[in-house]
Design brief:
Layout lengths: L8 E6 L3 E6 L10 E5 L1 H11 L4 E4 L1 E3 L4 H10 L2 E2 L4 E3 L5 E6 L8 E4 L15 H5 L1 E7 H4 L3 H16 L3 E5 L9 H11 L5 E5 L2 H7 L4 H9 L5 E5 L5 E4 L4 E4 L16 H14 L4 H18 L9 H6 L1
Parallel strand pairs: 1-4, 1-10, 2-8, 4-6, 5-7, 10-11, 11-12, 12-13
Antiparallel strand pairs: 2-3, 8-9, 13-14, 14-15
Length: 316
Amino acid sequence: MISVHNKEYDLLVIGETMVEFTCEGDVVNSSMFKMDVGGADIVVAAAAARLGSKVRLISAIAHDQFHSFLRERLTAQKIDISLVTTCQQSYNGLYFTSEKYPEYREYLIHHPGTASKHIIPTLVNPEYLENSKIIYASSELQSVSSQTQRTVFNAFLFAHTNKIMVAYDPNLRLQRWSFEEARMSLWGVLPLVDVFFVSWPEESKALFGYERPLDVIGFLLNRNVGTVVVKMGADGCMVGTDKCIRTFPQPDYGEANPFKTPALAGSAFNGAFLNCIANGYDPFAAAELANSVALFKGIKGWGIDSLPTVDDLRKE
């Protein structure tokens, strides 16, 4: 295994690349949309990269009308896409969403063939994993196919065996697959995870049956997860390790900065948190910065450009 100090990349994200279309009104009645690269895992990668982390992405992009646009947008975030494969006979996943109802996070997701089915175990070379400080994936990719589930498992198993940090978010999306499938995939990788992100209350209660964030943390720490992060939306987050459990309220930006949408703020949080961990911060310092990044994303709205840079955070 490469020494942490000699690793070229802070973060390796394995995830699905999608096209995001956002409107201001109802999706089905809108005629104007903003287009950007999207997907929960992509937001994690971009959030870390915009804060200065060196990020590499393993993904698949179809050679359709969006091919060049997606690659250009990822490259513009300074994400290394040298491991992103091009699929000749497929279509890129895309979703439509609205800013009109932020509390409901309205999504209409459509996968016409999906290039992400081409994210298969052979794309994940052990050399790529060894050269990264942290490996990240979520159930958004696992939900695509049995092959993507195997890809995530194999990557996590190699990383765990070779003492490379593994980070995971169950990212429960029941419009993509059944609850039983989601739960089985979670339990399959849980013994390999070092940093576990989970959203409260719906996701944490559904997956683990606990009402309180503290109980979720205790449950996962007892299963040898090193760091548990419970994201609590407007209430901030709770972070637990074997040494300490602390709560971090979300910063108050006041009425002058209304919160536009919570959608993908959790992914922005994950990217900021992992950026800090890769650069030597403890989980509690990482949580404070990640809270600020998630709030910044929620205030600015949709699109990758709503993620802050270090300079943006200094201005706040």
